[in-house]
Amino acid sequence: MTSDLHPSQLHQHLQMYERAKWSYCGGLAISMGLLFLGATQKPEYKPWVLGASVATLEVGRRHRQTAKLLLESLGDIDRASRVNFQAWARANTQPTAQLALSFGTIDANWKPENLITDPIEYIQKKQKHVALVGGTGDGKSTFTQYLSSKIGGRVVVYDSDAKPDDWAWIDQADVIGRKGNFKAIDTAMGNDLKTLEELVELRGEGGDNAIAGRERFLIAEEFPILVDECDNSTHWIKRHAKRGRRYKQFICALAQNDTAENFGLQGDKDTLYSCFVLVRLGQFGRDYARTKLKDPQLEQWLKAGGKRRFMVDDCPCELDLSNWGATAMPAAGCAYAQPEISDGGKEEVRSPQELNEYEQVIIAWGQEHPGEILKARLLQQVSQLFKKDDPENIRILFQSLADIGVGEVVDSGDRLGWRWLK
Questions:
Q1: Predicted TM-score (pTM) above 0.90
Q2: 190 or 109: whose pLDDT is higher?
Q3: Hey, what long-range contacts does 339-343 have (CB within 8 A, 24 or more apart)?
Q4: 322-360 core/surface letters (b: 16 or more CB in 10 A; e: else)
Q5: Residue of 137, 141, 131, 194 whose CA lies nearest to 170
Q6: Which CATH architecture has domain 119-328?
Q7: Which of 137, 170, 300, 357 is the most buried (most CB within 10 A)?
Q8: Whether 339 contacts 348, CB under 8 Å
């Protein structure tokens, strides 16, 4: 629709839409009537009656398609009428005006009434998990990094397509599934379910204090792929969706569509909307504003803002993350800062920052057994925390600690161990 479109033309389009809709309904009714009539006719007449029924149904289908296209072009009739009338009035009463309004454009100073600028505050207030929907280039990874840095707790990422430099700001032992290793992801998700059961028991026996320090933020990249490749994924998301929040096990699942099926919740759409805050980036946010909220003005506002504008549930959000990135994140390895070189030329480890619970257990053992070599199997025997963990994940954690200057690894492969160094 152009700026010189008179509002009366919208009425004509509306009439066309109504006629097409009723034509479809009438065609469907006539087709059903002919089918019923054909069932009672003599055999020689049945092909003719059935043919007429099919032809009528096809005409109705085309009218239905026409009605659908007209409805999409009309959008919000009341809003479109007001906006186009303003454009018509300006064109006829203020020919020298610099600003010409048209359907599909908005006032540069217009802002949504329910605009939010802090999605973290919104998510924490709702006490829900996060379902993040966006296409390639919409900023899913940047938003996820920002989100995980604010939510708190130990961050674990399931990402089968992670590149070497992805997720460099967290402990690399907690980036699971690189190089398409879906088996590792499936195993880790199974361990998450066991951990959740353990937390239920601990909290039941000792209250909230018994699970203090066990907070985790679990990020599952491209969840539809995990649904196809990992047997535990569907049970994982359902169990955490309904029980994880109480035990501080928050999850963020990423997909490129906001259907329940993409999140492994087939036939359970209520769980998606009751347990998750849905963050829609890019075109998905704009489509939601147009089709669900039926607000073309909001759609254009989102489009004008690029990546910094998106939808959080039914609330538009404006957050500029263009200058936010690696400088805002902790150093790789999380537990300790990178080694620095002293005057003597030897590496010295800086004072520890906040340690996660797994690192605390390993380092505490090393300090109690200086010079002794800790193996994965021994760690599983002495610590309930590691009892059901994969030995390979434990060895990866050993290597990660050694890489940042905390202790050293001994041997390699299945024989790899770790020992504390003063």
A1: no
A2: 190
A3: 339/404, 339/405
A4: eeeeeeebeebbbbbbeeeeeeeeeeeeeeeeebbebbe
A5: 141
A6: 3-Layer(aba) Sandwich (3.40)
A7: 170
A8: yes
